[in-house]
Amino acid sequence: MVTHPPPPTPCPGxxxxxWGTGALLAWWVTRHQLQKPLITILAAALALTTAAIxxxxxxxxxxxxxxxxxxxxxxxxxxxxxxxxxxxxxxxxRDGWLVGYFTADASQLVHPEDGAWVLxxxxxxxxxxxxxxxxxxxxxxxxxxxxDLLGVTLLMSTRVRKLADQYRVDLPVRGRH
Length: 177
Fold this sequence. Notes:
Helix content: 55-70%
Shape: elongated
Structural class: alpha+beta
Number of helices: 5
Low-confidence stretches: none
Distance between the termini: 24 Å
Strand content: 5-15%
Mean pLDDT: 83
């Protein structure tokens, strides 16, 4: 049986992870996914391909299919993004616990892994406006203090290079992890 460190406590000034904040996080994740340049390029390529194939059907049919193709594509990307996101969060909760810290503009989730607290799903309502930094300024001192008291290691998880670099600046490193 895997034993996990106890979860961190709520942080004043934030809301916990729940149905409402989980839906908000799923919306932010999905919106950011749909705004990626690759997704836009793929949708445009689909529209052009659809136009070329549908052209013999006439202008009205072609226009309808051109709109339907990208709409279906965006819907499939959104549905897949939400499904993968929710499956991941459910797995983390099932495998131990899942704690979240939310403001109106940013999120930070924490889950256990190999005896450590993993900080992940750090998202902002709007990127590049300092929302994440504002949340980190409130939540990270809280988490660092609790982790120190419990002797728990904090690990950061991100696929975004810019965030990884910022985490190295913002989060003090103690020892070799």
